[in-house]
Amino acid sequence: MTNIGSSKIDRARLSSSASSSPRILTYDENITISNNNKSNVQSESDILQYIDNRVNQLNEKLISNSSKLDQLMQKLYVKIDRLTSNIQYRKSFKTKQIFAIISLN
Q1: Cβ contacts of residue 18 below 8 Å, gap of 6+?
Q2: Rounded-to-integer distance, Cα 66 and Cα 72, Å
Q3: How far apart are CA 63 and CA 55, in angstroms?
Q4: Is 41 helix (H, G, I), strand (E, B) or coil?
Q5: pLDDT, tens only, 63-101
Q6: Domain that holds residue 89
Q7: pTM of the model
Q8: Which residues of 8-45 are buried (b: 16+ CB within 10 A; e: fewer)?
Q9: How many domains does the chain have?
C-alpha cells in the first residue's frame, strides 16, 4: 500500500513541478516568444532594406559620376583634337613659308 500512496505523492509532485518548470511554456508565453521572433525578423528585414536602399543610392551616384567622367573625357578629346589640328595647320603653314623662302632664293 505504500506504493499506491507514494505514486499519489509522486503524481502531485510532478504536476506541481511541471507547472512551475521554466522549460514548459504556456500558450501565452509561446505567443510572446513568437512575437519577439517576428520583431527580430522585422528588425533584420528593416536593416537589410536600408542596406539595399543605400547600395542603390551608391549605384546611382556611380552611374552619374561615370556619365560626368564620360562628358569630361569627351571635352578633353575635343580639345586634344583642336590642339592637334592647330599644330598641323601651323606645321603646314611653316612648311609653306619655308618653301616660299627657298623658291625666292
Answers
A1: 24
A2: 10
A3: 12
A4: helix
A5: 888 888 889 999 999 999 988 888 777 777 777 777 777
A6: 2-104
A7: 0.40
A8: eeeeeeeeeeeeeeeeeeeeeeeeeeeeeeeeeeeeee
A9: 1
Torsion sign across C-alpha atoms 40, 41, 45, 46: negative
Amino acid at 31: I
Query: What are the cell numbers at 44?
Result: 533584420
- Position 45 scores a pLDDT of 84
Q: HSE-up of 20 (CA within 13 Å, CB side)?
A: 5
Length of the chain, please?
105
| DSSP code at position 24 | S
| pLDDT value of position 77 | 93
Q: Taking a C-beta distance cutoff of 8 angstroms, is the pair 9, 3 a contact? A: no
